[in-house]
C-alpha cells in the first residue's frame, strides 16, 4: 500500500529532480527500499523455492491426483458434494 501511494504521487507530480545530489539520494533510497523488500520476502520463505517444468500433462495429472485423492473424496462425501 505504501508503494502504491508513492507511485501515484510520483506519477501525479510527473517530474524528477535535476539536482544531482537530490537525485542520488532518491535513487539510493529506492535501492535500499528494494533491498529491504527482498530481505523481507526471503525471511517469509523458510524453504527454498522449487522449480518444476510445467506442461499440460503434469498440470492435469496434479489436478487430477489432488481432486481425486482419498482425503478430498472423503471431504466431498462428508460435505455432500
Structurally, the number of domains stands at 2
For the terminal residues, how far apart are their CA atoms?
Answer: 39 Å
In terms of DSSP E residues, the strand content is: under 5%
Class inferred from helices and paired strands: mainly alpha
- Secondary structure: number of strands: 0
Write the layout of secondary structure elements.
Elements: H1 2-13, H2 20-44, H3 56-67, H4 70-79
Describe the structure.
The protein folds into two domains: 1-48; 51-81, no CATH class. The longest helix has 25 residues, at 20-44. With 81 residues, it is mostly helical. 73% of the residues lie in helices and 0% in strands. It has helices at 2-13, 20-44, 56-67, 70-79. It has four helices and no strands.
Distinctive features:
single chain; 81 residues; mainly alpha; 2 domains; 0% strand
Quick summary:
73% of the residues lie in helices and 0% in strands. With 81 residues, the chain is mostly helical. The two termini are 39 Å apart.
Amino acid at each position: 500500500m505504501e508503494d502504491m501511494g508513492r507511485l501515484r504521487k510520483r506519477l501525479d507530480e510527473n517530474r524528477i529532480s535535476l539536482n544531482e545530489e537530490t537525485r542520488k539520494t532518491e535513487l539510493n533510497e529506492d535501492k535500499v527500499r528494494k533491498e529491504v523488500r527482498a530481505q523481507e520476502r526471503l525471511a517469509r520463505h523458510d524453504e527454498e523455492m522449487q522449480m518444476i517444468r510445467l506442461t499440460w500433462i503434469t498440470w492435469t495429472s496434479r489436478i487430477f491426483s489432488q481432486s481425486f485423492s482419498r482425503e478430498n473424496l472423503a471431504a466431498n462425501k462428508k460435505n455432500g458434494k
